[in-house]
Amino acid sequence: MLNFRVPENRYSFSKAIMNNSQKPLDSLNVFSFKGIQMQTFHITWITFFFCFFGWFGIAPLMKIVKDDLGLTKGQIGNIIIASVSATIFARLLIGRLCDTIGPRLTYTWLLVFGSLPVMTIGLADSYESFLLFRLAIGVIGASFVITQYHTSAMFAPKIKGTANAVAGGWGNLGGGITNMVMPLVLAGFVGLGYSNPQAWRYAMVLPGAMLLIMAFVYYKFTKDTPMGNYSEIERDTTTQAKGSFISAASDYRTWILFLAYGACFGIEITFDNVAALYFSESFSCDLKTAGLLAGVFGFMNIFARAVGGIVADKVGSAYGMRGKGWLLAGLLVLEGLGIILFAQTGSIAMAVMAMLGFAMFLKMANGATYAIVPFIDAKNVGSVAGIVGAGGNLGGVLAGFLFKSETISYAQAFIYIGFAVAVIGAITALIKFDKKQLAETNSALSVA
C-alpha cells in the first residue's frame, strides 16, 4: 500500500521515526474521534454516505420522473445502466490517483465535480438530457474506492477488513436512507406549493449542496496517511511506477474478486435503483411505502457489511487468506439462492422477508471482498481496489440490461441474476494463494 523509505521494513512505517499517533491503528473503536486515524475514518464514511444521496437520490423519485418525462421501460433500463456505467471507468482512474496524488485531494475534487450534475439534473426536460445527467452523476460512485483506500491507510493489517467493512457499510447506508428521505424532501416541496414535476427537480439541489460541503470538510480535516499528506512526507516512489496498474491487473485473483464484487455490490446498486419501482409496480405500493421498503434493504448496511468484514478477519486469523476466499464463495452462493427465492414470492410480506435474507449475505460478501483486496498486491492497493470496485459497477450494468428488456419481467430478471451470482460464488472458491504468499499474508494478519 503506502510505501516509505525506511530502514526496517519496506512495506511498513518506521518505528524509529514515528510515535504512536503516526502509526496505523491496530484496533477500531467506532466511538473514538481521537487522532487523525479515527478522524479520517469518520469523515471518510460520512462523506461516502452523502455520496449515495448524490448518486441515487433520484432513484426513489423515478416514478414521478417517469410520468413527467414519459419514459418507457426500455428508457428507464438505459438510465439504470447509465447511472453505474460511468463509475466503471471512474473507479479505475480514481484508484490510480489515490496511489499518486493521495486520497485527500482525489476525494475533494471528485466531490466538487460530482456535485454539479446532481444539482443541475433538474434542468433535464427530455429522456436524452436526463440520461446524460444520470451518466455524469455516476462518476460519484468512484468515491467508494477512495473510502476503502483511505481506511486501509489508517489501520494495521489485522484490522483492515473490519475497518474497511464498517466504513463501506456505514457509507452504503446512504443508499438505503436516500430511499427513505428523498420522497420526504419531495413532499416538502409539494407542501410549499410546487407540483410533482417541479418538486423532483428542486429536491436534487439538496444532495448536490451536501457534496460541496463535504468537499470542504474532507480537504480541511483529513490527511493522506497517519504521517501526513503526500506533500509532507517522503515516500518510496518505486510503487508509483507506470507498471503498478499492470502489476495489479496481471494477477488473476484481482479479476476473480472483480467478478465477486460485481455479484454482490453490483446487485446492491441495481436493487437500490429498481427496488422502489419494483415494489410500487409489483405490489401496488404508494411512493412513500415503496421507498421505505427499499430503504430497509439499504439500512442493513449499518451492520451487515461490517459483520462480513469482522467474520472475514476472524476467519483470516484462523485459516489465512484461503479461509477468507472460501467464506466469500459461500456468502455469494447463499446470496444467489436468496435472490431466486425473492423473485418467486407472491406476497409483499414474503418478498420483504426474502429480501432481508439475501441482503444479509450480499452485504456480508461486500465486506468479505474488501477484507481480501488489501492483501492481493500490497504495493498497489489503489489499483487493485479500483479494478475490483469497477467490477461492482460492471455487475450493475449487466444487471441493468435485464431490467431494460421488454420481453422479461422484473421477477424473471431477478431469477437470472440469482443463478449468475451463485455461479460466480463457485468460481470465487478457485482463489489460490501459494505457500510463500500464505506465509507472508498470514504473518501480516497477525501483526498488532
TrEMBL record:
Membrane topology: Multi-pass membrane protein
Location of this chain's protein in the cell: Membrane
Domain of life: Bacteria
Family annotation (SUPFAM superfamilies): MFS general substrate transporter
GO cellular component term, pick one: membrane
Transmembrane stretches, start-end: 43-62, 74-94, 106-124, 130-149, 170-194, 200-219, 255-279, 291-313, 325-343, 349-372, 384-403, 409-431
Entry's Gene Ontology BP terms: nitrate assimilation
One GO MF term attached to the UniProt entry: nitrate transmembrane transporter activity
InterPro entries: MFS, MFS_dom, MFS_trans_sf, NO3_transporter
Residue ranges occupied by any Major facilitator superfamily (MFS) profile domain in the UniProt entry: 40-437
Keywords on record: Membrane, Nitrate assimilation, Transmembrane, Transmembrane helix
Record family assignment: Belongs to the major facilitator superfamily. Nitrate/nitrite porter (TC 2.A.1.8) family.
Protein name: NNP family nitrate/nitrite transporter-like MFS transporter
Species of provenance: Arcicella aurantiaca
